[in-house]
Amino acid sequence: MIQAKKHINALFTASMLIVCVVLFSSFKTNPKPPVANDPVKLGFIPLTDCSPIVMAKELGLFKKYGVEVIVTKETSWANVRDKILTGELDGAHCLYTMPFSVYTGVGGKAGSEMKIAMMLNVNGQAITLSNDFCGKVGFKQMNKVTPVVAAKLKAEKEVTFAMTFPGGTHDLWLRNWMSLAGLNQKAVKIITIPPPQMVANMKVGNMDGYCVGEPWGGVAVKQGIGFTQIASQDIWKDHPEKALVVNKEFSESRREDLKKVMKAILEACIWLDNPANRKKAASIIGKAPYVNAPADVIESRLMGDYNLGCNQGTEVYSNNYMLFYKGGTVNYPRKSYGIWAMAQFVRFGYLKEEPNYQAIADKLILQDLYEEVAKSMKIKIPTDDMKPFSLTMDKTVFNPANPSAYLKVVKR
């Protein structure tokens, strides 16, 4: 018993030490400038939606477009942030909202620029609850979340949820979920844990629930330690998720190489959206150098077939599971979604004052570059970027031209 407790404490201490180091480490003051003809260095986090970068490499698409690329596995989103900003990475598979979080000072040094070149996917994240909640709150039963959490708070004094980066997409889905459930975010503890460490931390009782990308929701179900309470696409169908985010200097000095990288990744996205290719994709990205998770778990959720766990049966998504292309609508980097993300920072108390939404979106999103690449590949470019929209569950209309009006009425 004592040995088991020591093991649990050691695991938690190690996990939190890693998080603290990567979140609060100082930025290097001598970023490495991009060098022409050097291999392009792209990072990824072990998640299913790293597939476009991994498959572009595995299918030989980078070579097809005449660019040498080195793909590396990274340990955390904060690690990715630091390496992009210092030039150790030219770009990476990245949370779409991270550049806005960093620039506004929520998740990094304010004013630090990370550029969004294109989107990689939509959908495919989930909120997983521990087995303590099994039988008390079911799939999409939002009205039962707050009473169950309140009872647990009364009995145990603390309830802990985890996300992967302050102001990142997983953080925003978690906080939107709490708002939809009527749960006061200040009543619970919210911690930051790197995606691949979520399952291990839940297994030893360090958290009650978490929001992260697949396959780590499916893996928790397979291991019998948690269940899927809701998928991110239930909260917002076709929400923005991961993006190709690049170093500012790289985007300026090696623009032609970046275009080649984008073309290769776009072709990989087209390949991935063919259901016939997803079994092969799962078998490749599941290997140890990449996601290092069971291929069957990756494949099932890639196909929209969700074993929910906790004797809840299976939920089958027919047109709103993880998508990588969808006729090009996935890959267009929308400024309206960046403006929405920054409004969430204000909504949930990260920012005391509203930022200059449009100016920041214009600065960080390389929309013109994407349009140039898409046109060269005859990929349709959406024309509805700045139109008002609402989320699937939260019907509050968001007008990107007037975020202030939204903030006056949206539930906090």
Could you give a quick summary of the protein structure above?
By secondary structure, the protein is of the alpha/beta class. The protein folds into two domains: 40-122 and 238-303 and 317-409, 3-Layer(aba) Sandwich (D-Maltodextrin-Binding Protein, domain 2), CATH 3.40.190.10; 125-235, D-Maltodextrin-Binding Protein, domain 2 (3-Layer(aba) Sandwich). It contains 18 helices and twelve strands.
Could you explain the architecture of this structure?
53% of the residues are buried. It contains 18 helices and twelve strands. A five-stranded mixed β-sheet has the order 2-1-3-10-4. It has a five-stranded mixed β-sheet with strand order 7-6-8-5-9. It has a two-stranded antiparallel ribbon with strand order 11-12. Strand 11 and strand 12 form a beta hairpin. It has two domains: 242 residues, Periplasmic binding protein-like II (D-Maltodextrin-Binding Protein, domain 2, 3-Layer(aba) Sandwich), CATH 3.40.190; 111 residues, 3-Layer(aba) Sandwich (D-Maltodextrin-Binding Protein, domain 2), CATH 3.40.190.10. The protein starts with a helix and ends with a helix. The protein is 42% helix and 14% strand. Helix 2 packs across helix 12, helix 15 crosses helix 16 and helix 15 packs parallel to helix 18. By secondary structure, it is of the alpha/beta class. The N terminus is likely disordered.
